[in-house]
Write a structure and sequence with these properties.
Blueprint (H helix, E strand, L loop, with lengths): L6 E4 L6 E4 L6 H8 L3 H5 L1 E5 L5 E3 L4 E3 L1 H9 L4 E5 L7 H14 L7 H10 L5 H27 L6 H19 L4 H9 L1
Parallel strand pairs: 3-6
Antiparallel strand pairs: 1-2, 3-4, 4-5
Length: about 190
């Protein structure tokens, strides 16, 4: 954040540049900036205006849903708020992005999977289903990272031992997710 001096920010979707020129800030503004915690500064704020446009307060420009999706892909922490009410609408924006992605030619979810999701809303196992989906997605993400790391260091390794190690790690992770201890796992292996 620049409090005093020149700052140039070019919006990726626009050809103009915003400029802050030399000036002074009142002590009141400096105190309010100092009172903001590091955690609050780390979360990027995007405001949704009544005209349905999204405004990125960090880059000082309007952005599209595609650019919000890029923030998600790049793991940038952000929060979308209604400009007038300051209501957090991040979830609805994320659902809009998913809807756009699912409307394209190569959807992630089949009709059967979408119907299963709908069936769990309002039912007794909804919380368990939500927790399971969260753990499964985290597991998949972790495995993708592990897979990438493995192939980075692949040069000079035996491919069979690499796959054996990865399989062992996968089994250990699934056992942890399913709540199996080492004794339970051995018992299951012996049966």
């Amino acid at each position: 954040m620049v409090l005093w001096g020149h700052r140039f920010a070019t919006c990726p979707s626009q050809s103009h540049t915003n400029r802050i020129v030399y000036g002074t800030l009142s002590p009141l503004i400096l105190l309010s900036v100092a009172a903001v915690s590091d955690e609050e500064q780390a979360i990027r704020i995007i405001k949704k205006y009544p005209n349905r446009r999204l405004y990125d307060t960090e880059t000082s420009c309007y952005i599209t849903l595609t650019e919000v999706r890029e923030l998600v892909v790049n793991e940038v922490a952000f929060k979308v708020v209604e400009q007038k009410s300051s209501e957090d609408i991040t979830r609805s924006i994320l659902l809009q992005i998913i809807l756009e992605q699912e409307s394209e030619t190569n959807p992630l979810f089949s009709n059967d999977n979408l119907q299963r999701f709908i069936r769990y809303y309002g039912s007794a196992p909804q919380e368990g289903f939500s927790e399971f989906m969260g753990q499964s997605l985290q597991f998949f993400h972790d495995q993708q990272l592990e897979f990438g790391k493995t192939f980075e260091g692949l040069a000079g390794q035996n491919p069979m031992s690499m796959w054996t190690d990865m399989t062992r790690k996968n089994m250990d992770t699934w056992s942890q997710m399913m709540g199996l201890s080492g004794a339970d796992k051995q018992k299951g292996d012996s049966e």
